[in-house]
Amino acid sequence: MDDGREATTRTEGETARCWHAEPADRVAEQLGSGGQGLDVEEAAARLESHGPNELRPPERAGPVVRFLRHFHNVLIYILIAAAAGTALLGHWVDTGVILAVVLINTLIGFFQEGKAERALDAIRQMLSPQAVVVRGGERREVDAAQIVPGDVVFLQAGDKVPADLRLFNAKNLRIDEAVLTGESVPVEKGTEAVDAAADLGDRRGMAYSGTLVTFGRGLGVVVATGTETEVGRISQMLGEVDSLQTPLIRQTEQFGRWLAAIIVVVAAFTFAFGYWVRSYPLDEMFLAAVSLAVSTIPEGLPAILTIALAIGVQKMARRNAIIRRLPAVETLGSVSTICSDKTGTLTRNEMTVATLVSRQRRVRVDGVGYAPHGGFCEGHEEVFPDRDPVFHQALLCALLCNDAEHFERDGEWRLQGDPTEGSLVVAARKAGYDPSAETERRPRLDVIPFESDHKYMATLHSDHHGWQGIFLKGSPERLLELCTHEQTADGPQPLDRGWWETAMDDVAARGERLLALAMQEVDPHQQELTYEQVEGGGFTLLGLVGIIDPPREEAIAAVARAQRAGIRVKMITGDHLATARAIGQQLGIGQAEAVSGHEIDAMDGPTLQETVRRVDIFARTTPEHKLRLVQALQADGGICAMTGDGVNDAPALKRADVGVAMGNKGTEAAKEASEMVLADDNFASITHAVEEGRAVYDNIRKAILHMLPTNAGQSLTIMMAILMGLALPLTPVQVLWVNMVTSVTLAMALAFEPGEPGVMERPPRDPNAPLLSGFMLWRIPFVALLLWLGTFGHFVWMEEVVGASDELARTVAINTLVAGQAFYLLNLRLIYDPIWRGWALFRSRAMWIAIGVLILLQLAFTYAPVMHTLFGTTPIGPEDWARILLFGLAVFVIVELEKAVVRRLPGRQPASAATTG
Ligand code: ATP
């Protein structure tokens, strides 16, 4: 491979070369790739010298900058001001503790953010694009990162171009180059060289990395990879860094800033009141004001929210739903309609031909799966299709107008390619046809590949003896439009359309997928097949094929689950109406009513909006209909998830609230337009993702419900003490201990919580409902009041009744507050439902671990001498603990009672509570 190496070094030095101005065959020759592509060793050697075909990940700020960024926060500024104040007053221990807490807070934020980002990166890696290349004379699918200059790459509609290519074959190839040129209309591609000075958008013979193939097919040789490509050179195109911010997190951060502003005012007011009205000493009042400010701020909240989201994303990935954009996690929780494709998502995509119909006969095909075993029967009589002239032509058409490969390996029959086409090869084999022998007898000259938009595939063949013809297969409705005749044992007859329509309905009513087969003889010198020629019609219909594709078991269960969760499931399919209806029935989707793409075309916006409210099955649709359906659903106020795989699905996927692309059969274009990708193409994974989405949203609400009452309870305690002229029940450093250590430890457990038992038995959340709903605005002050009563009451009782020292009374007060927090955490396992429902209390490991850790922390806080110095605590006795635990238990019982009352309020049944509340 000396040639190749020479080419390699040459390309390295000549990245800016005008490949577009050179003839394609010369380029291929120079890069050392003949018709066979590179051989495997050469490809490996070039990978070594050129490096992987990847763009450098977008520049991330260095660790120091990222660490410092965590200090840029109003709350931290307040803490630093507090530290400065205490230092001025000579309270060095307080200064040290406050600064330590600031440091710990930023460190936690820094590490957790790093962890969450790494987790998301790992998930994104799961989506690395693939490309089809020729290596060593064989077509194979490789990771796009493995592509090297000189590789020959196949392109087809829906692909993202994996590297810069010089095209040497293009059939109706159109590419959307908007990422490079800003031009949103796809450009027509060819193979010819253009002027060296041509603009990027005018270089017809080139396909550039990162652009999207929207139509047709092509073949090109790689001229540049990775950072050498055009897109690699334009650095701002490297794709924006997905930040960890979601609308919800932004909302809470904004809330935090407002809170901080209010706090500063209230603290200033309290300071003035205490100093001038109550005549507290200046330094004590300053500390009180600092305590107040620090106590009200939920310092750990944003970190907990980010962690809850990141954990949700990881859990979804484990269940085959890969999130591409973080806000989708929140949206998933409020999805009210899921629109799903049928084939492969709701059904198994394991196709078996079950029926063959010609104008004169209808036969049943036996045998399931890919093994070519099984016979053909008409009633009870065995039939040999190869001896029937019409079936013979039909099976030839099925076999030759086909790109699937069917082969035996390790004693097992396998399929490569489209399963619909594969089933036809299996059927032809059952009838005794040998695919390779037939292909040799009638080689293919040209092809128009299948696309959902035109719903047919056509191939041009010649038989070495002067015969030449087009085989056509596709959806029967489409083929009926293109046929003028039907084949019979006595030769072609004029088409009896009505007869065929009845036959189609019969087969489809059993839930079989329909295909029609047709042919046309053509002029023996024709070399190329055009859309115009096929769509000009004049074909002879050979027969119909009925294919079974059973529903997935797990999809049946998942549809039922989604429906119980108040989510409408709609099936959108390209299949026949009757087939769709029959499969819908097996899956439990829709009543008998189904609407076809033609009918949708005839509807205006309001009519369609009314129709989607009623109908769940849409058949004979094209991808364009999906977009209209999404728009109609959204106009009706729905939150809509939509699945898709093809390049033409992209607009609907983009428009949907949650676009869901198929990971296996989906095109890059579809994945790019989606929020979520299904690793297993399975409908059940969508419901799992919705379930996790709901759980994440619940957990976020729980974290807020847990943190805010603690803050409010502490502030109340301090304010009341000042108003009543008492000693401070909590010092600033003690408040920090509660906010930064106990609150965060406990609330962290909520981020790991599994979903509530009934999470999929209640209707979807109203996306417009504010985060702090009516119920939360009640629950937060309610619990705050409970915590205040316990903490403040216990403190006052210790000081006034027992006559304890400030240190002892404070230590008891803090432990009371923490016990209240811990027991309230248990209540929060379920927001509204009684905690014993579904043994929920014992199902949460994270919660019990957090409480265990908390007990150790509080024991250290109370008994470790170093803590005494730092936090001014002192050991407390067993009877103090008894009262503390009693209070905790009381909080637990009272909140459970509150839940019982709330559940009984009109319009707040347990199932609907979580959505409206
Ligand atoms: P989904 O239900 O997921 O929308 P679908 O396969 O039903 O998928 P399309 O892929 O748009 O929808 O197919 C529409 C129709 O086109 C099929 O019902 C079938 O008649 C025909 N068809 C499908 N695959 C091929 C193919 N490879 N060649 C020719 N015709 C095909």
Automatic annotation (TrEMBL):
Pfam families in alphabetical order: Cation_ATPase, Cation_ATPase_C, Cation_ATPase_N, E1-E2_ATPase, Hydrolase_3
CDD domains the UniProt entry points to: P-type_ATPase_cation
Membrane-related topology note: Multi-pass membrane protein
Subcellular location: Cell membrane
Record region (Disordered): 1-22
Domain named Cation-transporting P-type ATPase N-terminal: residues: 18-91
Single GO MF descriptor: P-type sodium:potassium-exchanging transporter activity
BP-aspect Gene Ontology terms: intracellular potassium ion homeostasis; intracellular sodium ion homeostasis; potassium ion import across plasma membrane; proton transmembrane transport; sodium ion export across plasma membrane
Name of the protein described by the UniProt record: ATPase, P-type (Transporting), HAD superfamily, subfamily IC
Source organism per UniProt: Halorhodospira halophila (strain DSM 244 / SL1) (Ectothiorhodospira halophila (strain DSM 244 / SL1))
Species lineage: Bacteria, Pseudomonadati, Pseudomonadota, Gammaproteobacteria, Chromatiales
